Amino acid sequence: MEGLAFLGKSLWGLAGPWQVFYALGSTLVGIVIGILPGLSATLGIALMTTLTVKMTPTDAILVLVCVYVGAIYGGSRTGILLNIPGTAANAAATIDGHALAKQGRAGRAMGIATTGSVAGSFFGVMCLATLTPLLAEAALKFQAFEFFWLALLGVLMSGSLTGNDPLKGWLMGFLGLFTAQIGLDGIHASERFTFGYNDLAGGIALIPALVGAFGFAEILIVLAEPAKKAAINAVDSILPRVADVLKYWKTILRSGAIGVFIGILPGVGEDMGAWASYAAAKRFSREREQFGQGSVEGMMAAETGDNAAIPGAIIPALALAVPGSAPAAVLMAAMIIHGVQPGPMLMVNQPQFAYDVVAITLVATLCILFFGLAMVRPLMWVLRVPRAIIMPIVFVLCTLGAYAIASRVFDIWVMLAVGVVCFVLRRQGFPVAPFVLGVVLGDIVDKSLRRGLVISDGDLTPFFTRPIAGVLATVVILTVLLQFQAVRRLFGRFLPGPA
Amino acid sequence: MARRDDLGFGLGWLAFGAAVLAASWRMDRLESLHINPWSAPGLMPGLLGALMMLFGAALGVRALAQGAFRERGALPGVSARRTGLALVLCFAFAAGLLGHGWPFWLTAFAFLFIAILVFRILDRDAESPASPGRLTLSTAAIAFSAAVVISLVFERIFLVRLP
User: Residue B31 gets which letter from DSSP?
Assistant: First the structure.
């Protein structure tokens, strides 16, 4: 009952005219960011963090969550119409969405995207409201040993699952963790890797690094390739259908549950939520042969899964200070910038804020439903703007976004340097998401390891023998070992295979 | 080419990891402050350096095992000319023009006009054809509008001090 009272107060607080304006405006910005290929939810949140610095924490998080939800939703448009996923989370929906568009049913596909996104978000919001307090309460028992493994698990899982090559993903994760070590250390305020430069003593700021990794690097990648002519055609009805919800309710519930679960896993993200939901829907479907050929069920599953993963990814960010995805990592960093300290103590010190986030995610869901009903055709105009015009404008925004938080020209240099490094590495198949998780979690990993060792006086056994730490350590070690074929073969001998 | 690149990058990670490890080893251990030695600032970076060395070496060894040296060199997939142009323009704006006392809207306009015009000309096959004069005029209008709107929004609405 106490939770409902908090939630009611949060919803009332979001009913003001400015809050409605912020919610609608930022969801629209998010949808446009999602529609534009190359611009990701992570970049959108990072840029908007700069603009929301002077807002109250709740208003700022309202803007950022609306951009997050809007971007993941908007990305399906580009997948349906151009066969290019607007964000990585929309890749699974693109398979059947574009197949439907080729059959002249692009409007129908967009309607399904709206239905799936709204259903997934609603399901996720319910889980966010119920699971966050439970997880935070359980995490009150965590000490440095558990936080060390949990944060490391986030970086390694992100490395394993976000790219095609876990080895490259882990290396990027370590690079991110290393980047977070630059500057004054968090325990003794001793300088690390500053080489006598005062600017480096302040550390590599998160927002300029993220804008470089997701903004400048992406701009270079997009501009490096010649443009292709866009083929846009959506003449049929774009309205979401209640009949779809009734027909595929089992798929929606299953995909919602999978999306939330994948979202909660540290560092995994919305794209895996979509793929896992799509694979499960295909496995249990009666119309399996239609998957890949324009299956309504397949598209519904993918869109429900990726949108359910958004609240799922926010759950560990709030309750454990370990984000479930790269965009959630930036959201968590924005909370810290606004003076909110996520983690197990959040439900003790600022329970109202946790319910504010639940209410905000609910409002963002209503906003995508509004835009899904009212603004589909005008928003498709965005796809007609040539990228030769969009990308230089985005670069100016990236430069300002990097500079504005601290008004330091040094941060522009950080953005440029990180952008070039990430551009080169991405061309070689090194994924960027683990780098982001590493930068965000580097401080927790470092402090938790050293605090744990100080508590145990250098004894490593508590890292493995405490019950929760032991489980997390096993998962971390298996996450790495199971990527090696020899280890998988060894496990295969002990596990029963198919007859 | 991918395996050969992996070999090169594996060696790069190995060298970078070694540099991080060496710098961490030489980092001040704050013994004069009598801190607990397990809280020394270089501990975590040193571990990360060692891990980057290990996984970098694994990347290189895997590339060798997959025949990195047997692979023939191929042209890179990226258009080097387009990448070079984008890099030069972006660096000229962000590192060359900004922070030298010029009004932000003017530097943004100059960058946007040149960058948009250059890439519209390079992408003209994908756009509807336009005469050179019309292309230049429309680009100038877009660049001017974008520069002024961005400057006003950041400075007046979000109260950001522009570089």
Answer: G
Q: Which of B26, B31, B33, B39 to mutate to test the interface with A (most CBs of A within 10 A)?
A: B39
The DSSP 8-state label assigned to residue A155 in this structure reads H
A416 at B interface, C-beta within 8 A: yes
Q: Where are the beta strands (DSSP E) in A259-365?
A: none
**Using 50, 70 and 90 to split pLDDT, how confident is the model at A498?**
very low
Torsion angles phi and psi, residue A49, rounded to 5 = -60, -40
The closest alpha carbon to A107, from A244, A231, A235, belongs to A235
**Which sequence spans correspond to the domains of chain B?**
2-65, 80-157
Are A352 and A377 in contact by the 8 Å Cβ rule? The answer is no
CA distance B37 to chain A (A): 8
pLDDT of residue A352: 92
> Is A384's pLDDT higher than 90?
no
The whole-angstrom distance between B26's CA and the closest CA on chain A is 11
Q: Mark yes or no for CB contact A171/B13 under 8 Å.
A: yes
- Which of helix, strand or coil describes residue B58? helix
Q: Which of A353, A327, A444 is nearest to A47 (CA)?
A: A327
Tell me, yes or no, if the pTM score tops 0.90.
no
Question: Cβ distance B103 to B150 under 8 Å?
Answer: no
Whether the predicted pLDDT of B69 surpasses 80: no
Q: How many CB atoms lie within 10 A of CB A230?
A: 17
| 3-class secondary structure, A101 | helix
Q: If 0-12 CB within 10 Å is exposed, 13-18 middle and 19+ buried, where does residue A279 land?
A: middle
Alpha helices in B26-154 (DSSP H): 43-65, 80-91, 104-122, 132-152
For residues B77 and A440, what is the distance between their CA atoms, to the nearest angstrom? 32
Say if residues A69 and A27 touch (Cβ distance below 8 Å): yes
ipTM of the complex: 0.92
Domain boundaries, chain A: 2-493
Contact yes or no for A159/A173 (Cβ under 8 A): yes
Residue corresponding to tokens 């969550």: A65
Cα–Cα separations (whole angstroms), residue A63 to A34, A47, A68, A120, A449: 15, 11, 9, 20, 35
Torsion, Cα A426 A429 A435 A438, to 10 degrees, reads -170
Contact B20, B59 (CB under 8 A): no
Chain A residues within an 8 Å CB radius of B87: 220, 420
Chains A and B form CB pairs within 8 A to the count of: 186
Per-residue pLDDT, B126: 58
- Is A51 or B99 the better-scoring residue by pLDDT? A51
The minimal CB distance from A388 to the residues B94, B108, B119 is found for B119
Q: Rounded to a whole number, what is the distance in Å from the CA of B131 to chain A's nearest CA?
A: 17
Which residue, among A76, A57, A481, A32, has the nearest Cα to A238 in the 3D structure? A76
**Which tokens go with A465?**
């023998």
Indicate the length of chain B as a whole number.
163
| Burial class, B55, CB count within 10 angstroms (exposed 0-12 / middle 13-18 / buried 19+) | buried
